[in-house]
Amino acid sequence: MNLFDLKGKTVLITGGYGYLGGAMALGLSHYQANVCVLARSESKFREAFGSDAGRLHFIPCDIANSTSIKSAVITAAEAHGSIDVLINNAMYCRGNDPLGISDDDWAFSVDGVVSSVYRCIREAAPIMQKQASGSIINVASMYGIVAPDFAAYENAPESLNPPHYGAGKAAVIQLTKYYAQLLGPQNVRVNSISPGPFPNLDTQRNQDFVSALKERTSLRRIGRPEELIGAAVYLASHASSYVTGQNLVVDGGWTAT
User: Rounded to 5 degrees, what are φ and ψ at 35?
Assistant: First the structure.
């Protein structure tokens, strides 16, 4: 048996054309999964993947809208016959001043970081329960585990992970444990991945900031998007058939120091 074979498996990934989501989407398709990218813009989807777009399926979805999520899940299930994996990767957040975030921005961001994950689980889990199989993978963050190293952000205050983001990601990890316990009897596994320092290309233009991030990790470098593929494939596949309720940290050793 090929423990990592995903042939015939239908994978839904929200925000699947972003910096990290795009790498995971293509990586999963390489293992022969039917990957459905749930996102708002088909044009951005095609721009992000170019000639590789044909390997994936785009389904319009706005994670801020329950009706949109439900429609996307039903569309995927009807088109492919099952929903085997759900990766909750998309999020939205605004406000960056730790002591100056407005009530509206706080509520908006908590909704985007954790409530959106709940909404997606709510729509996909019943289908997985009926199948008596499934894997839900929630993308959390190292900042759901530890506080930021504020010294690393001295040269890039605009990139500081704000408190509502970390609090939301910590909630995602707890949500993972909750639903692992709830859905386990129906053979539905729920795990999370906590990426570490994976700054996007725009952020990487600040070399001083990137250098500070590198020095904070055990491996002395930042992460590459493709380095999340192994974690996603593992948790999506039979290789992790007895793994649930866990948070897999992929951070180059950031949280180990």
Answer: -95, 120
